[in-house]
Design a protein that fits this description.
alpha+beta; 44% helix
């Protein structure tokens, strides 16, 4: 049994070259078998052909090494799936809503941990989602809320009946740049806790 497991791992770890065509472009890629398997599974879940998924990822790679970008994408999706499995079904639905939203958005749990982030938000911030998922929201962002309300107070209000949505200014400071946006903080009561949905308005 152990030898069979080693053989299977060796096969999945072996480099495989494939040529894919989509959107009038041709991609020649070498990846380990395990990454091709992961990409095929993700494409199937999304109802896409593998070449279409690769083309969509390539469009976001901005000239970076596509094979490396695909590996990072696979790891990011695996981590996201693991986080999703930790969430109750009702929270999973909210996370799915965030990920499918056309406007930049993310979601944090009542402990302030980022549990979902969508592609438009990743495009806006320019940071891979795998570096943000599971991390404290306030490690990467600062918020200016209405007078008399700071984010700590807002988080405490999340569990209260009738907690209201709030407008705020969100700021992300990175080496060489500062990003700021008007956002809407929306508390959502779910089974066994609360979530805060953060939508960028402009």
């Amino acid at each position: 049994m152990a030898d069979g497991g080693v053989a299977a791992w060796s096969s999945r770890g072996r480099m495989q070259q494939r040529i894919l065509q989509a959107g009038g472009r041709r991609y020649s890629l070498r990846l380990e078998g395990c990454y091709w398997e992961t990409l095929a599974a993700i494409a199937a879940r999304r109802g896409l052909r593998l070449n279409r998924l690769v083309a969509e990822i390539a469009a976001r790679a901005d000239g970076a090494n596509l094979a490396s970008h695909l590996r990072v994408f696979c790891l990011e999706e695996t981590r996201r799936a693991a986080l999703m499995r930790e969430l109750p079904a009702e929270r999973t639905s909210v996370v799915t809503l965030i990920e499918g939203a056309p406007a930049p958005a993310l979601a944090a749990d009542a402990a302030g941990r980022i549990v979902a982030i969508n592609a438009p938000f990743v495009d806006w911030i320019g940071v891979p989602s795998e570096t943000l998922l599971g991390t404290p929201l306030l490690r990467s962002f600062r918020f200016h809320c209405r007078a008399g309300l700071n984010l700590d107070a807002f988080w405490k209000e999340l569990g209260c009946a009738g907690a209201m949505a709030e407008s705020a200014r969100m700021i992300h400071i990175a080496p060489g740049r500062v990003l700021a946006a008007s956002v809407r903080l929306v508390p959502v009561k779910v089974t066994r806790g609360q979530l805060c949905l953060i939508w960028i308005l402009k």
